[in-house]
């Protein structure tokens, strides 16, 4: 997937794992991402569900919470409320959860599937149906990426949603910066 | 989808499967020693002097570690050359963990060595220990193969999702680089 791009001015939903893969504010990957989204006027959103998961993490991972806070303080990342009462949104979440389950290995039980992964798809669907801006999802997990992409395509939102593998994306951003 | 299939293959030579954690206890518990071992493994046959310089470790420490690796039977001195050169062989052992049998190969040693510079791995090991890191590595490979999501892997590891995704993110970097020198990690 060389040279994946996020559309200028789009809304990009990211998972915490993408943030973790970037490291903290002193990391080159983090800085490259911050510069990219700022320059392209991209609004980065993290679902409330994901932010809460981070808030409830063990104290030893306070530094991960600090990374999220730094991005919020810098103004390029905001938490977003998922409207679970919207039938399209909840359907996207349920279907993604089911799709993750069906794509997972045989020793993965239904109880092993976290709803949090699927919430990303729900929020993407919510933005795609309600707002004028193009929507992208960045996940750093090939199975989640596949499931979210499959479900969002099948639901045929008014505007196509880009689902991008976050680790590769961030690494390529950094390579681009180095080439310049 | 990524086409690479990351998998640890079983050793072809049963003698290499020592299955004895004690033999390698020092290697798995000493990040500096682990780092030296991986450095030599990555660089082939090298002089002790160059290892010392590359890693910035004192003379006495370098010789102590070389001696320890030799005692474990993983390091060979090539004394027919001047200065003496050293090389190491890839380890392969089976660890019994609460997640069943987990195979430990150089990629695990690399992860252990990276505690020195990598906070994500250091915090995990401090909290969970080396056998759990071995299990986390096992699940990282499965995540990279698209067999489960990182959050499912965290559930299986029985750690908080943030702890799981943090260590898996860090281990993915280790695995990607380790395909170059770990013969048991089959891309």
How many individual helices of chain A? 8
Give the proportion of residues in helices of chain B: 40-55%
Pairing-aware structural class of the strands and helices of chain A? alpha/beta
Provide the gyration radius of chain B in Å: 17 Å
Summed up, the helix count of chain B is 9
Strand order of the largest sheet of chain B: 2-4-3
Give the strand content of chain B.
5-15%
Give the SSE string of chain A. Answer: EHHEHHEHHEHEH
Work out the largest interface and the residue count of each chain. A-B, 32 and 30 residues
Rg of chain A computed from alpha carbons, rounded to a whole number of angstroms: 16 Å
Oligomerization status of the protein chains? heterodimer
Keyword list:
heterodimer, A: 180 residues, alpha/beta, 56% helix, 13% strand, B: 187 residues, alpha+beta, three-stranded antiparallel sheet, two-stranded antiparallel sheet, 9 helices, 7 strands, 53% helix, elongated
Summarize the structure.
Chain A is of the alpha/beta class and 180 residues long. Chain A is built from 8 helices and 5 strands. Chain B is elongated and about 55 Å long.
Overview of the structural elements:
The complex is a heterodimer of chains A (180) and B (187). Chain A has 180 residues and is an alpha/beta fold. Chain A contains 8 helices and 5 strands, in the order E-H-H-E-H-H-E-H-H-E-H-E-H. Chain A has helices spanning 16-22, 28-39, 48-55, 62-74, 87-103, 115-130, 142-155, 166-179; strands at 11-14, 43-47, 77-80, 135-139, 161-165. Chain A has a 5-stranded parallel sheet with strand order 3-2-1-4-5. Chain A starts with 10 loop residues before the first strand and ends with a helix. The model of chain A has no long low-confidence stretch (mean pLDDT 92). Chain B is of the alpha+beta class and 187 residues long. Chain B has helices at 25-29, 31-43, 48-55, 59-72, 106-113, 119-128, 130-144, 150-157, 161-178; strands spanning 7-8, 46-47, 75-78, 85-88, 93-97, 100-104, 185-186. In chain B, the strands form 3 sheets. Chain B has a 3-stranded antiparallel sheet with strand order 2-4-3. The longest helix of chain B is centred in the C-terminal third of the chain and has 18 residues, at 161-178. Mean pLDDT of chain B is 87; it is low at 11-19. Classes of the chains: A alpha/beta (180), B alpha+beta (187). At the A-B interface, helix 1 and helix 7 of A face helix 6, helix 7, helix 8 and helix 9 of B.
